[in-house]
Structures are given as structure tokens and as C-alpha cells.
Amino acid sequence: MIGPRQRRAKRVAFIQQALVLLAVGLLAVLIARNTVINLQARGLASGFDFLWQEAGFKIAFALIPVDATSTYGRVFVAGLLNSLLIAALGIIAATLLGFLLGIARVSPSPPLRFLTRGYVELVRNLPLLLHLLLWQAVILRSLPTVKDAIGLGGIAFLSNRGLYLPMPLLGNQANLLLSALGAAAVMAAIAWILHRRARSHGEAPPLLARGLSAGSLLLLVLVLIGLDWQVPQLSGFDYRGGLKLMPEFVSLIAALTLYNAAFIAEIVRAGIQSVDKGQREAAAALGLSSRQILRLVIVPPALRVIVPPIANQYTHIIKASSLATVVGFPDLVNVFLGTSLNQTGRAVEIVAMTAAVYLVLCAAVALATEAFNRRVALVER
Amino acid sequence: MHAPSSSRLTPSGVLATARAYPFSTFLTVGLLYVALWLTWRIVDWAVIEATWQAGDRAGCNPEGACWAFILNRLPQFTFGFYPEAERWRAWIVLLAPPALLLLAMAPDFKGRRWIIAGGFIAYPVAALALLSGGSLGLSHVPSDQWGGLLLTMIVGIGAFVLSFPLAILLALARLSKLPALRWLTIGFIDFWRGMPLVAVLFMSVIMLPLFLPPGFEISRPGLALTGLTLYSSAYLAEVIRGGLQSVGRGQTEAALALSFGFWRTQTYIVMPQALRAVLPGIVNSVIALFKDTTYVMIVGLFDLLNIVTAALSDARWLGLATEGYVFVGVIYWLFCFVLSHVSSRLEAQQSRVVRQDQILTGSTQ
Amino acid sequence: MTAPTSIKVRSLSKWFGSWRALQGVSVDIEGGACTVLCGPSGSGKSTFLRCLNGLEEWQTGEIEIGGIAVGDQPRALTRLRRDVGMVFQSFNLFPHLSVLDNVTLAPRRLLHRRRKDAEEQAMRLLQRVGVARQADKLPAGLSGGQKQRVAIARALAMEPKVLLFDEPTSALDPESVKEVLDVMIELAKGGTTMVVVTHEMGFARRVASRVLFMDKGRIVETAEPEAFFTCPCSERAKSFLADIGPP
Ligand SMILES: Nc1ncnc2c1ncn2[C@@H]1O[C@H](COP(=O)(O)OP(=O)(O)O)[C@@H](O)[C@H]1O
Ligand SMILES: [Mg+2]
Question: What keywords are annotated for this sequence in UniProt (chain C) (predicted)?
């Protein structure tokens, strides 16, 4: 129901909002005008046509073929992929280490608790950039030269030029590999469905399910062994073959992982401790085994507490991947917001594209978290 | 997770435990050994074998830390290239905040309100005037000569002092009844929170000069400060919004019924409670901001971290990265560690107050 | 002394979405007297009371307090609220301020009284409601009855011409109820216009000049307390009185 007072209030609100929009609009126009004038004064062109122009610079590490004749568009994609690679590796490694540390933080062993606590306090109170420079300078500079590289089981090598890893040579085996992977995936999926059905009926999973999961695992192992692995070989002044990771890349991943793992550890610890001790004891009194208690009583509510802040931390890692710029690893910010902008002068376009990338990535994490929260809320009811 | 029972502490208890849990005992002993070994290595390097006075790298014991490098460069690490004769000005600027803070924390100090107001309004202006000079008979010191810890403090304190009022306005607008204002604010906040600080600083150096009217210029530290301020105000705004939402509607209604208007209600009733409620979060934001000041290196400013990094390539002191970064690390670590303890103390205190309140009132309010 | 402030309400209607909480309420509330408003829970008493000082927006109808219309212009509304104090069921004391500061805040910030004057006045008021010894405590350290008496002192500090009470004793234990009611009885003798939502029928009987009975968003009965309690006219009032027991 709307009375005369509500109509008046609506009118007032409308005018107020119009004024707000007008003020913001005026500011935007002013900024746009200044930008146009400034760009002209500096003789800078505008438009997105540069994306199809030759960039003329090389990229030290790329997941797609890029050379000096590639376009800026291709440079953009290469930088984006590098950023995503750093973020993905950082997220995976920091999560693994963070969970280990977080569980150790609440372990029954006092020295373990003490050491992990010391680690967390030491690491998270230092700037990430300091971690990065420290890794870059101290650790990698103090590593041996290529000639005296540290062998890791004879298949991987660590030197001050970077980390050399074995890499499978795909080529003629690609089809075989893909079909084996597909078969493993199908088997795993069927096993998972059987598992779930059995569990929802309160029965033990059928033998077939176990067989299938074991089979898919076996297949994976076979594929991994059967691949044509190329182990890096020392030839001349450098290792040939395999995958060579630049020292910048290694120190970046190390810094991102070690720094964010400390934060994730604290999140995990808080999550575990948020599960009421009474609940655990009640479950034990019901005669549940300690594995069942972990799976049914501790993990679900702890995850509810853990996931939102961890998602936040993932956003942080995605954004921090841009620190690659500082050590000179060619991520998106480095090659696009840095070199490409310098060469083309298309400030507005390049800044907008870079901003859009990060906003989309952060929005994706936020949406995923939202979906998780909704699912958890549903389960709770 | 389990409190150790007292029997475990007796010698026979320890032995019994060791026999019952061989793996965890092995782990414990191993870890203790690692911890002790690490401690010994660090003490040996940093103290026992360390060299405190030397003219160059060659004068240092290679087995230990070469602190002579840090001591030699200390004035530069502290003040950057600020002229030696004028450093008393920098001293005042550096020492004023802790002095003000101590004064404000003194119990029963009546002028606290004035200190806070002065800290947020008078200090930045006065500090800027004093450092840059050019008036009152002070010689002008251009901002590209500011550096080291001084610059870190300027950027950190400046960004906080500027972003705090901005964050309050953003938080209020974020909760406004006007959808247009609300959505604009959400857009603004989410934009800055979604941007990497590296990109923010790049942008502020590239874009801000383009946005300004022709002929209008801001110095590089000013540009970086602007970017950092906008960035941290978005985070602070979300913290403060949480505080605002934690203040019950009854408080606003009581204030309105007493005939407070909107702004006075916010100033005297809502904000004090909201800020108090999220003080731990604000302190955590300060920690994050302080660590983030290191990013100004990206736009070529010589803050503490960058000036030390630059000094590492001095030919007389080559290869002393560990010493340099340990020095920077100790400064950052002390600051952040102390603040994070303040933050968790505040948090514990608050949850205690809330519990007491519930007991005393039978949780009627 | 100026003439006591009366309240005039004409066909007041209020909707929450499509739910009509007040259905054209018209009533004249006598100045300088205590009017008690009662009725079953959900009948719209609080909503009605909150319309009187504009805390609640309504759709149609008019309210006049002391001959001045309760408008919807923020500034005029703020001005009007200076003369209309309100006491809430849940006290709504400001937890970050001491008892004394709770009372002095509005006079100091809105009437620009000097601190010393405001504190003297506040101490007089706290004395009057019997919590002067608690002046330096935080609200969290008070009992419920003390909190509500501080809330009354806080409202009185603005020297309002009208005082609104929304179930001031419902959240209290029996002993505290008496403390608060005693203060209110004293107030009623002082000649301020009071509108009190309460189920304390003993209080109504002793000090009310009139009792308004509300049901389903309407005032269905208006009577002298004695008449209301001895022989309520409407069936609804009868069963209501039977439910809450004898005064
Ligand atoms: N903010 C609100 N939104 C929706 N409905 C409300 C709101 N406040 C009150 N109501 C409804 O209006 C009716 C009257 O409420 P109220 O005035 O609080 O009753 P009383 O004080 O007599 O118990 C109730 O049915 C209540 O559910
Ligand atoms: Mg009510």
C-alpha cells in the first residue's frame, strides 16, 4: 500500500539518486575529457586494433608458441595463461601445505604444535614481497651452477638456472593416452556413483565399485609409466630435454606457497577447533570409529567454516600471482600492463582489459563460494 | 587436542608413552632435534660468528653475518636520500606517531578525542609540510629524496589516515537505502578488491596523470599513495560495514527518538560501537596495509625493502642479501607481530565482555 | 507553565506490505494525563506508538502533537521528537557510554548544553529515578530495572512534553517491575502527557486517566480505568482481561 507519504518519500529518494548519478556522471565526463586531451597532447593513439599488430618482443616462458612476430593479442593470451598457471600451482601447493600445517597445529604432539605455530607466526608477519625477494636472492643465488646441479633422484635437477623436470613426450602417443585417460575417468565415475548409492542406503560399497576404482588407478599408473618420459640431460652449458622452469618461476611459486600456506593453516586450525568437542565425544560415545568421526562429524561442519575464508585466500593468490612482474617472470601484468603498454601507449584499453581479467577471476571464485554456501545451507535444513 | 595427563610427565610415564606410541615419539624427538639444530645454526650465524664493524665485505667473517653492512648503511636505510642536515625534520615525523599513540593510550587521559582528531587531520598535513619544506624558512626537499623507513612510514600512515575516513563513507553508502548509491558503492569496492595491488600501482602511475587536468601533476609517491589509499579503503570499508551491521536497530531508534538526526546518530551512537566491534579487523587491515607498502617498489620508490635491495648491489658489499633481508624482515616482523597480538587480545577481551554482559543481564538486551 | 500537550490522531492506517496493521485509528489523547494502551499481542500497539513520534512511516491519516502535525520531512520530524520522549521494552541504552553519558549525550550534542550543566541535570534525574549511585557504570553492569530507569532518565533529560512507553516492564523480573512502575507513577503525577503500552493493570487502575483497548489494528474501547476493569463493553476486551488475570 502506498500513501501520500510514501509517494513523497519516493520522490525525494528519486531526486537524491538522480543527484548522486549526476555527480558521478559529471566526474566521469570530466575524467574522460581530461584523458582525451592528455592522450592527444602525448600523441597517443587509441582503439583495440593493436591486438592484431606484431608485438616484436619475445617471452621467456609461455604455454603457447610465442615469438617476436606474434601479435599483442597472442601476447595477452600467453601472459594470461602464465598468470593462471602461477595461480593454479600456488593454490594447489598452498592448499596441500596449509592443510598439513593446519592439522599439525592441533596435533597431540606439543613440539609439532610449537614448530608449526612458529612457522605460521614467522611467515605471515613478513611481507609477501620480502619472501619473494629472499627466495629469489638467497636460495636461488646460493644454488650450484648447472655443472654441479643438485640431482633429485637422477631425473630432476636443481641449479641456479632453474628447476629441470622430466616431461612426457606426447606426439604419436597422444591418442592412446587420451583414450586411456577417458577409460579411467569413466571407470572412476561409475565407481563413485556406486559408492554414493551404497552409502545413501547405508550399505557397504559393492565389490564392483572397489574393483573399478582400483582399476582406474592402475590404468593411470600404467599410463604414467608407459609414457615416453624425457629426462633432462646435461649437454654443454645447460640441460636439454624435459621441462625447464625459470628460477623466477620457482621462487615465485615457493613464496606464494609458503606464505599463503601459513594463512590457510590458521583457517584450517580455526575450522577444526570450531567443531565442538562435545560433538566429537558424543560421536565417540555412539561407537563411531575415529575415521567415521572424522568423516561424518568433524569434516562437514569444519568445511563450512573453512571454505569461505580459503576462497578469500585463493583470491589473494590469484592477485598475488602478479608479483611475477617484480622478479621478471612474464605474467599478464608484466607482458601486457608493462611491456605492451609501454610500446603501444594504449593505456585505457590495456588497463581495462587487465582489470577485466582479474575482476572476472575474482568474481568466479566468489560465485563458486556462493554456490558452496548455498549447498551447505540446503544440507543444513 | 587432549590435555596431557599428569602421569605422562613423570619419567616412567614418559617411557610408557614412548613404548605405546613409538611413531609419534620418534616424530617428537626428531622435531625437537631439528628445532634445536636450527636455533643453534641461527645463533651461531647471527651472533657468535657475526662481524659488527668492517669497512667492506672482505672485512667480514664469511662464517657469520656481516652486520657491519647494515650498520654502515643504517642512516640511508632509515631516511633514504633525505639531506643529512635536515634529518631532524624526519626524526620528528617518525617519532610523532608513537608519541601520540602512547599519549592516547594513557589511562584517564581527557584529551584523547583531540589526539585522535589531531592524528587524523593535523598530523598528515603537518608532516607533509615539515618534510617537504619550502615555507617557514625550511628548505625544500623534493619527494624523490624521501626514502627508506621514512618513506615506508609516510606511505603506510598516509594511506591509513586517508583511507579510514573514505572507508567510513563507503561503508555508510554501501548500506544506504538509495539503490543507486548502494550499487555504485558496491561496484567501487568490488573493483578495488578484485584488483591486484601490483596492477593498482601500475594503473595509478599510468592512469592518474591522464585523468588529471592538463598541467596538473602529482609526484610519484603521491600517485602510489593514492593507489594504495583507494585499494585499502575498499578493504577497510568492508570491515567497517560488518561493524555497522553488528549495531542493533534499537540503537538507531533510541537515537532517533532522542531527536538525533542521521549524521549525529552515526557520529555519536553507531560509529563508536561499530568501530569498537571491528577493532581487531581494523588492526588486521593495518597489518596488511603495512606489509603492502612494500609494493611501492613496483613504481620505483625506494621504501625500506627497495633501498636495501638496491644496496645489495653495492660493489663493496656484494652477496649480503641474507643480512639485508633479515634486517628488513626483523623490522616488519616486530611491527606485525606486536599488532597481531594486540588484535587477538582485543578479540579475546571483546568476547569476554559480551559473555559478561549476557550473564549480568540474563541476555535480555 | 504552558498548557499540557495533547495528541490528536485521525483515521491512521498503516500497512506492512499488504498486511494492514492499523485500520483507521482515530483518537484524542488528553494532555497532561496518563493514557494506558492495552490489547492482545500483535494488535498494533507498538506500531501505533511508533507512529506517534514518526519512527514508523504510515500511509494515510494524520497525527497532531500539541497542534503540530507529525510530518515526514526529516528536519521537522527531528524537531518534533525533541518534545516526544520514548522508552523501549528492550531499554536500548547506549552500551559504549556510561550511565551519566547516556543521559547527558542528547542535551550536550543537541541542545548544546555545557558539560557541567548537563551533568548536574543528569545527576538530578538519576537521583529521581534512584540510580544516581550507578552514574559511572556502563549499562552492561546494571540490572534490568536499573537499565530501564536510566532509559527513563535519558528520555527526561530532553525535557519532553510527551512521553511514550512501549511495554517498559515486560522484559523485567517482578521486583524490577515495581521499581520502574514506582518511577512512572511519580512521573504521572508531574503532569507530563504519557502514553503507556502495558499489561500492568494495577498501574492502569492507579494512574491512568483513560484506558484504550486495541484489537486487530483498531481501538475498540475507550474508557475510564474503573469502568474498563469492572465491566468492559466488548467481548474481546472481556476475554483479554480474563486471560491476563485480575489487576
Ligand atoms: N516491521 C514489520 N514488518 C512486518 N510486519 C510487522 C512489522 N512490525 C509489526 N508487524 C506486524 O504488525 C502487527 C502489529 O504489530 P505490533 O504493533 O508490534 O503489535 P503489538 O505491539 O500490539 O504486539 C503484527 O501482526 C506484526 O506482525
Ligand atoms: Mg509490542
Answer: ATP-binding, Nucleotide-binding
Q: Whose CA is nearest to atom 11 of ligand 1?
A: C21
Long-range CB contacts for residues C45-49, cutoff 8 Å, separation at least 24: C45/C166, C45/C197, C45/C214, C46/C166, C46/C167, C46/C197, C47/C14, C47/C21, C47/C22, C48/C12, C48/C22, C48/C214, C49/C86, C49/C164, C49/C166, C49/C195, C49/C197
Measured between alpha carbons, how far apart are the two ends of chain C, in Å? 35
CA of C197, closest atom in ligand 1: 21
Q: How far apart are CA B317 and CA B69, in angstroms?
A: 7
CA angle A335, A339, A345 (to 5 degrees): 125
Question: What residues does ligand 1 touch, defined as CB less than 6 Å away?
Answer: C 16, 19, 21, 39, 41-47
Other CB atoms within a 10 A radius of the CB of residue B41 amount to 10
CB contact under 8 A, A9 and C57: yes
Distance CA A84, CA A78 (A): 10
Chains that touch A (3 or more CB pairs under 8 A): B, C
Q: Which tens digits make up the pLDDT trace of A149-176?
A: 788 777 788 887 788 888 777 666 677 7
- Count of CB atoms situated within 10 Å of the CB of A200: 8
Q: Is-contact C193 C163, C-beta < 8 A?
A: yes
Residue B19 alpha carbon to ligand 2 centre in Å: 67
CA dist B66 → B37, B56, B94 (Å): 21, 9, 27
- Largest Cα span, chain A: 88
- Distance in angstroms (rounded) separating the CA atoms of residues C89 and C86: 10
Distance CA C6, CA C137 (A): 37
Chain A's closest residue to B298, CA to CA, is A326
Q: Which atom of ligand 1 is nearest to the CA of C45?
A: 22
More confident residue, B339 or A280: B339
Over the stretch B341-362, which tens digit does the pLDDT of each residue have? Answer: 888 888 887 777 655 555 544 4
Task: Report which ligand 1 atom has the smallest distance to the Cα of C19.
Answer: 5
Contact at 8 Å (CB) between A261 and A318?
no
Inter-chain touch B321–A108, beta carbons under 8 Å: no
CB contact under 8 A, B198 and A325: yes
What is the Cα gyration radius of chain A? 27
Q: Which of C37, C46, C196 to mutate to test the pocket of ligand 1 (most atoms within 8 A of CB)?
A: C46
List, for residues C78-122, the tens digit of each pLDDT value. 999 999 999 999 999 999 999 999 999 999 999 999 999 999 999
**Across the interface, do A16 and B337 touch by the CB < 8 Å criterion?**
no
d(CA A190, CA B299): 54
Contact residues, B window 276-295, toward C, CB-based 8 Å cutoff: 276
Helix (H) or strand (E) holding C12: strand C7-16
**Among candidates B261, B360, B364 on the partner chain, residue whose Cβ is nearest the Cβ of C141:** B360
Query: Residue C168: which residues within 8 A CB-CB, separation 6 or more?
Result: C87, C88, C89, C148, C151, C152, C180, C184, C196, C198
- Four-residue CA torsion sign, B99, B103, B104, B106: positive
Which residue's CA is the closest to the ligand 1 atom numbered 14? C44
Going by the DSSP 8-state scheme, the letter that residue C93 receives in this structure is: -
Q: From CA B155, how far away is CA B148, in angstroms rounded?
A: 11
Return the C-alpha torsion angle B237, B240, B241, B245, nearest 10: 180
Tell me which residue has cell 577493532. B279
Of B180, B212, B321, the CB nearest to A141: B321
Instruction: Give the containing element (helix H, strand E) for A165.
Output: strand A162-165
ipTM of this complex: 0.93
The predicted-structure confidence for C123-145, as pLDDT tens digits, reads as follows 999 999 999 999 999 999 999 99
Q: For residue A264, how many other CB atoms are within 10 A of its CB?
A: 27
Cβ–Cβ under 8 Å, residues B145 and B123: no
